[in-house]
Write a structure and sequence with these properties.
This protein has three helices and two strands; from the N terminus they run H-H-H-E-E. Helix 2 runs antiparallel to helix 3. The longest helix has 28 residues.
């Protein structure tokens, strides 16, 4: 039976990232955030979800949307426009 325990421990989510932050606080790519939002929307569409769970899902969804907006704002600020003379200018 020790092998079963070892397999179970391998499948458990890490308690912290290498930098010591909880996994939910790590920087996540936009694609992962969008996938999370898709899952939240699907869960909210379930007729069996309780009102309390729906509010919790809504709160999580709003947090994910804020994270997406912050990431998109950073990307927008970093975008460069190449001028006609070949120089790069900050996108505005």
């Amino acid at each position: 039976m020790p092998e079963l325990k070892a397999d179970t421990e391998k499948n458990q989510a890490p308690t912290a990232t290498p930098d010591g932050k909880p996994p939910e606080d790590r920087e996540r790519p936009l694609e992962e955030l969008f996938d999370d939002l898709d899952g939240i929307l699907s869960a909210m569409g379930d007729r069996e979800v309780t009102l309390e769970d729906a509010f919790s899902l809504y709160e999580k969804g709003m947090k994910k949307i804020r994270q997406c907006n912050e990431k998109l704002d950073l990307v927008e600020k970093k975008m460069l426009v190449i001028a006609q003379d070949g120089t790069e200018e900050i996108f505005s």
